[in-house]
Amino acid sequence: LLKIEYLLFWLLGAGASVATGVRFKAALLVLGTCLAAVGTVSYELAADSKSLVPVAYMPPMAAEFLVCLGIAMMLPFFTSAPVNRSLSGIRNFAVAVSGFSYTLYLFHRPIDAALGTIIARADVISAQSLSIFLLRLVICLMGAVIFYYCFERHTAAARRYLSVVMTKRTSPT
């Protein structure tokens, strides 16, 4: 169950799509970056931690709002033609990663949770804890890649097949 505030945050992002034609995109980028940074730092300072005493300069919801507003203000810059041209060299890589992203999103948490029952969480940052973290990261990525090749990779073919099957079923014979 999501909080109602998240609808507002989503609307900020959706509203940013209307602002893609504004002239002062660079200024929005700078202001948005500052707001997102202030929100992120405020949110993190107020969070429970083993190493820092939490300090709340603003309510967590206000910090989340600043992060979302800042990101929404940055979006018009990132949709501009110069940015798209500068990213053209990595377009193929970005398309490949975006195709894999849903599987990674879907499967990394259960894989990591299963690993958490086998590998204890570290209390301190050390070479050993960083090595274990990297091992967990690699296992999560490899697991997600396996699931991608088994399932998501075949999405387009499955859609084509279902389209053909549904067309045959609905067409008069």
Topology (elements, then pairings):
Elements: H1 5-16, H2 25-46, H3 60-78, H4 81-86, H5 91-118, H6 127-150, H7 155-170
Helix pairs in contact: 1-3, 2-3, 5-6
- Uncertain stretches of 5 or more adjacent residues: none
Please compute the radius of gyration using only Cα atoms: 22 Å
Can you give the mean pLDDT? 87
Oligomer: single chain
In short:
With 173 residues, the chain is mainly alpha-helical.
Can you offer a commentary on this structure?
With 173 residues, this protein is mostly helical. The chain has seven helices and no strands. The chain has helices spanning 5-16, 25-46, 60-78, 81-86, 91-118, 127-150, 155-170. Helix 1 (5-16) runs parallel beside helix 3, helix 2 packs antiparallel against helix 3 (60-78) and helix 5 (91-118) crosses helix 6. The longest helix has 28 residues, at 91-118. It starts with a helix and ends with a helix. The model has no long low-confidence stretch (mean pLDDT 87).
Which keywords apply here?
173 residues; mainly alpha; 73% helix; 7 helices
